[in-house]
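As described in the Methods, two query proteins were run sequentially through the folding procedure within a single session, without resetting any intermediate state between them. The first query and its resulting structure tokens are shown here.
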Amino acid sequence: MVTDESPSDEAAANPAAPAADEGSTARARDTGGTRDRILTVALDLFAEQGYDKTSLREIAERVGVTKAALYYHFKSKGDILTGSLDAYLAEVDDLIAWGKAAPPGLETQREVVKRYAQIIGRRFRAMRFVQQNPTRMQASDHGESFRARMQEVNALLSGDTGSTVRRVRALAAVLSLHVGTMAMAMDESIDPAEAAAAGVQVADELIVANNEDAGDSGR
């Protein structure tokens, strides 16, 4: 017999029955988890044996899924790389938007440094790819996108000034964060947390020096 019971009414009448969307929610979680594992494994393989030498079959085998399951999420290695770099750049975009909306000055610049370091930590594999594949990045749309974002971060850190010295210091601050990240990848004797903290410290010192110079020039 057909009734007008809503899903919630049905669940109340039969407490043992699962919620109507429970299965779809679980599948959505699994789908997202598989996608994230593919991105992680692919970037690790790209680092281990190179982008060109890594096949979709190898990625699928390392993840533990069929090629058909991998194709459900990504049609090519290029799609995987795009997914990884887009996620990284989206976080940088959020940081840039926050920095532009915050009051200008030293405290905001120091916070930009800290937040960018956290992004690098979360997106370490994507940053590693950027650093290890400069030629591929330069020849791609991602390379131009990355450069554009770094110019905006540099502008946030150098402030509203035409000083070449301050702009170079701001660039050096960003590079110190990148160098700290790459130290984690290239030297196993360096503690990753210590390397990241050292990068933040050097970047912070450069930003403070920039603001001290600005204060001196205003006197």
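Immediately afterward, the second query was submitted; its sequence and tokens are:
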Amino acid sequence: MANIYVYASNMGTNTDVPNSDFTGSYSFLSKTSTQCTEQWANGQIANLVGTNIVYNSGGNAEFSSGTLTGLQIEASNGYVQMSLTGLSYPFGVGNPGSTLQQWMQTFTGGVADTFYVNGGGDTVNAYGSANTVILGSKGNFIIGDAGTTTVVFHDPRADYTVTATGTSGTYIVAETAGPGTDGTTTVANVTSLQFSDQTITPAAGLIAIDTAAQAVASYQNGQVANGVSVVDSAANVQANLDGLQTISAAGKLSSITLSDSGTPTMTVTAAQLAHDAAALGDISAPGGFVLSITAPTTSATITGIANDANVVTFTGAAAQYTIAAGTNGAITVTNGTTVDTISGVQQLQFADHVVTVEENGGNGELAALLYQASFNRSPDPHGLVYWTGQATTQSWTQISTGFVTSPEFQTKYGSLTNDQFVTQLYANILDRAPDSGGYAYWMGQLAGGQTREQVLDGFGFSQEAINNATQGFTGQSGHHAAWLFLV
């Protein structure tokens, strides 16, 4: 493990000094502490002059030389510091009037090295694994290997463009806005690019990894040859959705990743949904996202995006609309002469009420019923999609464990006795006190070895619970409108 401080490059070479003046073993100054201290020790380095020289430090080292062509520094332990600032000739040897020529240096690390690239025009081979390259200069070339290599930039992601060179895994990262601290850096086979506000992972073979606005501008300027991958906030993607659709229609949009924390919401009109469906289908987010579709004032056909949480929003109260089953799994929502045909959505959001739409007998229905049973509320759309997906690989008892042990359940109810647990289920699902026969039955089930998760499933999936959810009912706290529509 080493810290490698790369101070400068493109330093002058004295072509008039013969090699014999530089061969042999020479002393140099080696720092044993951090980059900026003045604590010095002695060290040795051999064969300072020549081409393609390889030196393995074996420890902490500072190299003070400006005369080598193709010098390669290999770090093992400690840190290696290449300090060339202000040096025209090594150790004062040579003719001060000699012509200088430009050259480039290569720095090679091992495992868990940190390179501080403070010069310009350096090549850093971050071989091995778990390496970090921190930029402090312009015009460098950073090369990763089979392990992980992170290149650290100073400024926000929006200040940079990331463009592929045509060689798989090689990108040019140019700071085109902001203070311009890092200039232009070429990276190859690196694992991630860390900016001051976010970290992105390059995908080999793509022409660019950009913000939504940068991607649209690059495409309009003819700079997207092979494809583009977008990493940006939901708000910025939404603002550039039409332009991203144009890129997608041309077959140049690889993916859109939302950078927001939590579960962001994107809002589109029904017309945008129809026009930009391809781009919307390319969106993913680490925490998922919700697509809110605004219903028009005229009749429309609305088809949600597969595998996303889709919500259609209406301006009026639920009582103003009639929901009915359509054909092929669709529903119709009628308000006067306006009839919307809707499919592939999880919820209808009215001004005063939310109705969840799921397949009769499907996993989505059962997931929705568990929300009511556990939390006494309608499901949130992203959570509904998540747990519906989990049901393809987990049993409902396993899923119920996730509900009962969730922070929301623990915060809302705390630690409950069996008596309190059963009573709470009656309140959540049936909005009534337990009847003596039902109470005795469920307490007996718990005493006989059934888990609370099994009892939760029994309550939540009961016919009475389904009837209450789909038909509405009046309980001890008042009337409850139907909140679940089954197709």
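The chain has a mean pLDDT of 75. We note this only descriptively and draw no conclusion about the first query from it.
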